[in-house]
Predict the 3D structure of the following.
Amino acid sequence: MTSGYKPAVHFNHVNYSLDGIHILKNITGSFPEGCITTLVGPSGAGKTTLLKLCNGLLSPGAGEIHIKGNIICSYEPVELRRLVGIALQSAPMINGSVLKNLALPLALQGKQLAEKDAKNLLHDVGLEEECLLRPIKDLSGGQRQKVSIARTLVNHPQILLLDEITSSLDRVSQLEIEELIVKINQKYGTTIIWITHNLQQAMTIGHYTWVMMNGEVIETGKSSLLRAPVNEKVQLFVKGDME
């Protein structure tokens, strides 16, 4: 699947259990550097758990994870979170202005975000500069999601993890976010790992796709695999979603 590409993230026989439940089972594979890989599969397949393992929010029970060629535990937590950013479906925000929310990652490090840099971030995600001082509560769902992504970009991550970031948005906002993610990938060469339930989105946006079921990686390859999967379970999954 990743022939010719360096792995940005590599899983080597990774297992994860919680409360006696085996959530991830012997995951092995790589996410290629500079590409968009989409993660699809039914609810409960382990996709979000896998994503959280990529930036140290969770630790594997067995196996190894390598980030940019180094074992994940060799990074300090703050260093790892700078390298590997994450944006979630809920886009949690703090009370106050857009600027206050954008500044949060640096504020947690005892640093300040320059207004010029904040405006550049808004420009990157397609928001007007005048949004900077607006209360976050006054923004639409799509605008909040853009702020969430902009905030993740404050640390200039080389790897960006996305968990269902368009699932609650209207079609117009969804398309805007899709265009934004492609732009980030192309402009900065950011490696992107994106969980989505939208198979059309996975095929359109992804260079590669992992299909997960019941804690296992069932099929991987170029995202076009979703048009004609080889695995029978994946065929049934795709057929059910497309109907």
About this structure: The first strand starts at residue 7 and ends at 18. The mean pLDDT is 92. The beta strands are 7-18, 21-32, 36-40, 62-67, 70-71, 84-88, 159-163, 191-195, 208-213, 216-222.
